Every structure is written in C-alpha cells, then in structure tokens.
Amino acid sequence: MALISAFYDALGRADYAAMESCYHPEVSFGDPVFQEVEGRDRVMRMWRLQLGVRDGLKSDYCDVAADEHTGSAHWTSRYTFSSTGREVVNEIDALFRFEDDLIVRHHDEFDFKRWSKMALGRPHGLLFGWTPMWRKTIRDRAAQQLDDMR
Known about the structure:
Layout: H1 2-13, H2 16-21, E1 23-30, E2 37-38, H3 40-53, E3 54-66, E4 70-81, E5 86-99, E6 102-109, H4 112-120, H5 124-128, H6 132-148
Parallel strand pairs: 1-6
Antiparallel strand pairs: 1-2, 3-4, 4-5, 5-6
Domain SnoaL-like: 5-106
Pfam families: SnoaL_2
Protein name: SnoaL-like domain-containing protein
C-alpha cells in the first residue's frame, strides 16, 4: 500500500522522479486513451504528456488495497482540458501488479464516454464519445503526441 500511496503523492506534486522510482524498468501502463504503453521511459513520457496538457492537475486517491503481488486504488483527476478549456473531473479505478517491490503493471479504467463529454463538450463528446471511430481518433492523437515527445 505504501508504494501506491507514494506514487499518487508524487503524481499530486507532479514529481516525475518520485513517480518513476515507483515503476519497474519493464512497466506497462494501460487506460482507455493510451491503451498500452510499454517500458518505464515511455510510460514516464506518457505522464509528462498528460500532466503537460492538463492545466492545474489536482488528484486525490482513496481505497488503496494491496498484497505482495497486486494492488488497487481509486483516484480522482481534476484539471482543465487544454484544447477546449473545459473542466474535467475524472473518476478512475487503478489496478497494479508488483515485481521486485515496484509497479510492473498499472492499468487505469474510467468511463470514456463520460470523460469525452466533459473534456470535449457538445457536440463531439456528447454525440461521438461512445463511438469506436471517435475513440480511435482520440487514441491515435494521443499515440502521435506520445511519439512526438521523443
């Protein structure tokens, strides 16, 4: 539980070095937008991208549970989505797997349709947030931004 708490405390401070120290070199991350990101360097680029495009990210976490091999938490992300200026409050459930006392797998799950309505507003988020084509557009854009950070 201490490792998960240390990660979210570091996220709340945007302390990249402390966040990175919680991750195994072979960590993989997944969520509804980025789907699968492999390796600590790339996962940390993803966090830098996310924190960089979200104005004033604030996060809270609760319901942390862990054993020797797995863990979970619920966290809330509050920010202004930079491309639209819209306020977002995203409720996220996280699952973790541990190896060598570090996070080797981190998966965040949230309601993509709800997020898109908040982040993108009408008509895009409301009308298209649930469609596979729109999700692919958002995912492709995120992947391209991540690749551009090299």
